[in-house]
Amino acid sequence: MIYKFKENRVWRAYTGGKRIDKFYGKENCSDSRRPEVWLASTVEAFNPDHPVKGEGLSICDDGRIFKEILAQNPEKILGTELCKKYNGNLSILVKLLDSAERLVIQCHPTVPFAKKYFGSMFGKTECWYMLDCDEEACVYLGFKPGITKEKWQRLFEIQDTEGMLDCLHKFAVNAGDLWFVNGGVPHAIGGGCLMIELQEPSDLMVIPERVTPAGITLTDKKLHGGLGFDKMFDCFEYTGYSREETKKKYFRRAGLDENKFSTVVGDDLTESFSMEALRVKGKSEVELGDRYAVVIVTNGSGVLKTASGELELKKSDNFLITANSGQLSFAGELDLIFCTA
Asked: Which of 62, 88, 255, 318 is most buried, judged by most C-beta within 10 A?
């Protein structure tokens, strides 16, 4: 079965979204404080400085809340194994993210840290698959060697943003790049990036910058995530790597084979999720077996035929395919990204 969703724009503390508008083929595209679209989401956004109940939860085309549908049919949607493994919870969150400015430096918890301090079975390991990038687009990722908790905390206390950025590696990015971000690894997305972000299903983070690049002052709770200022610094992983080591650990450049899956994120990077690309030229048939997938059409147009019906596809279409949906028959010229548990 296939679930399609209403566009689910989410408020954030940075501006962006113009590239998402263009990706959707809209007119009068513009940046705003809603620079992300959350796809098939069962997660509420953590915005203590802009609280809106239910923000982030996906609404199906028929008006039903997807989280409630999942609660009623977890095994049918997720598949037997994944339903059992994650207690009936969707174990991924997929976003379209467009940064018109640099995002604040942040860090997300590992699963053990999230369980101990946030009471969550999920951390927030994530990855970024770049769809479109400005010429000067970049990301900051991972500590350089020699950065200690004491030094990092001192930079926070004096709010030396340039000093904090200088502790991280800076990498230029291009369309088609994949960057992986393990829990505990500090990072910041630079301006000019349109990406698919695949992550564990939480909005947990700590932020050492009190003021965003656009001049917005964040609340204390947004900074420490409810942990308090002392405990938040235990969320960071202080093992530093050289630039070459960091790129080897976290960067991938996947090829696109015609009419079969190409691995973008595999188990060499993480067991939390996977990402596969499919380039359809003419006809392509694939199966997911006993797992579900959140799918994004990144280019082209065509048709998807399943046992339950036929779906016309175009660039920007996104949907969830439930487990055990049988053969998926694509026709046309399409590039698709499959995000799976």
From this structure: 318
